[in-house]
Amino acid sequence: MNDFFNARDVLKVGDKDYVIYRLDSLEKAGLTNLKLLPFSIRVLLEAALLSVAGGLVGVTIGGLAALGVRGLLDFPAQVTPGIVVLGIVLAAGVGLAAGYWPARNASNLAVVDALRDES
């Protein structure tokens, strides 16, 4: 996957490494000023962006599967622009829905409680 804004980073927690994508890279690219947004909105934005990235991967895999089915089985499967847009919009919606509760909970936590490691 392309990293157009150099947003990819590695978060080390204990002995595990997690790949994350940082929103502040959008700020460095001059696209927005994240400090003006409430923290809960930033969490929702991150969830939506991550879901859209997953939706793009899903649409790509689905398109390739449709080409394979059409070529191998002579079945009239095709991917239209409407299906692509719907897939991406649904992915963003799922991301917003899944990110709502963590964003709401994060906005109600004290910073000390949010940073506590309970593993």
TL;DR of this structure?
The protein is mainly alpha-helical. The chain is built from 4 helices and 2 strands, in the order ββαααα. The longest helix is centred in the middle third of the chain and has 35 residues.
Task: Itemize the secondary structure elements and their pairings.
Layout: E1 8-13, E2 16-21, H1 24-28, H2 39-73, H3 81-107, H4 111-115
Antiparallel strand pairs: 1-2
Helix pairs in contact: 2-3
What does it look like?
By secondary structure, this protein is mainly alpha-helical. It has two domains: 1-36, no CATH class; 38-115, no CATH class. 61% of the residues lie in helices and 10% in strands. The protein is built from four helices and two strands, in the order E-E-H-H-H-H. It has helices at residues 24-28, 39-73, 81-107, 111-115, and strands at residues 8-13, 16-21. Strands 1-2 form a two-stranded antiparallel sheet. Helix 2 (39-73) runs antiparallel to helix 3. The longest helix is centred in the middle third of the chain and has 35 residues, at 39-73. The model has no long low-confidence stretch (mean pLDDT 82).
